[in-house]
């Protein structure tokens, strides 16, 4: 046998030759074929060599994975060098992973394509691997790869990383009795979270809600200042329950034309967080001011707000997958929240 006859064949198992080991999956070129033949002639190969020759439509596993990876990755994605026939896609910046799960499922339903990611909505750091792509066989029908690429391009990208954007964030504390110590704790917790994500915290407006009329007027004035005059893109609110439609704050929000986007989210702890909108401002609230010092579902929502994503009731529905936020799930949170306490009596 001449080296030319083996040119382009793919090894299905590793082969030891005097110069080292030819790994499985290697596509033989003239030099590799010559080394293999020389070793065989010298009696240096103890077992049968398993080889595959590609059909005209076949792609080598590395080429197949690269084509699929290039189609799968969107903004904020950097392609890493191949490693064991796998291509990793890493975050190009700090931000939040966006996964189009439906399209991802359709790609993975094609034998033998494999694309696997982190959770949708997970906070990541620059350089962190967010997705990997590979195929199982060493030779893959090109039509299968083309089908996966078509889905990724038409419905994707399958995965992207939205960067945190520097924003100014304000806060409103609205509880019946707000002490200076409570305000200080609320503000410290909110500030730490906002600044950890690259934004600026501008302070807290306290609105005691003991007297309904005064509380409604105070909440209305605070909302006007932060959303209509200063036009802050994100406002945090503590001490307002989404389950209380008679809350003075809710009445003040409605009087200005604002509305609830979502009352509660499918995640625990923190299922009673709420999201509202007033003009161009997204308002994230928790029923107790003290919860801003703890790790809750709000720590999956706030990072998305600080990428500039406009959240809807439908987009928050994806929190349900992986929404049991026990300590085992803290990896989904930004680094600032991974060691915080959970609300009393919650997981």
Descriptive report:
It is built from 10 helices and 19 strands. With 347 residues, the protein is of the alpha+beta class. Strand 2 and strand 3 (20-22) form a beta hairpin. The protein is elongated, with a radius of gyration of 28 Å. The N and C termini lie far apart (67 Å).
Describe the SSE topology.
Blueprint: H1 3-6, E1 10-11, E2 15-17, E3 20-22, H2 30-41, E4 51-52, E5 58-60, H3 61-72, E6 77-79, E7 86-91, E8 95-99, H4 101-108, E9 113-117, E10 123-124, E11 129-135, E12 139-141, H5 142-155, E13 159-163, E14 168-173, H6 180-196, E15 200-206, H7 212-229, E16 234-238, H8 248-255, E17 259-263, E18 274-278, E19 281-286, H9 298-305, H10 313-316
Parallel strand pairs: 14-15, 14-16, 16-19
Antiparallel strand pairs: 1-4, 2-3, 5-12, 6-7, 7-11, 8-10, 8-13, 9-11, 17-18, 18-19
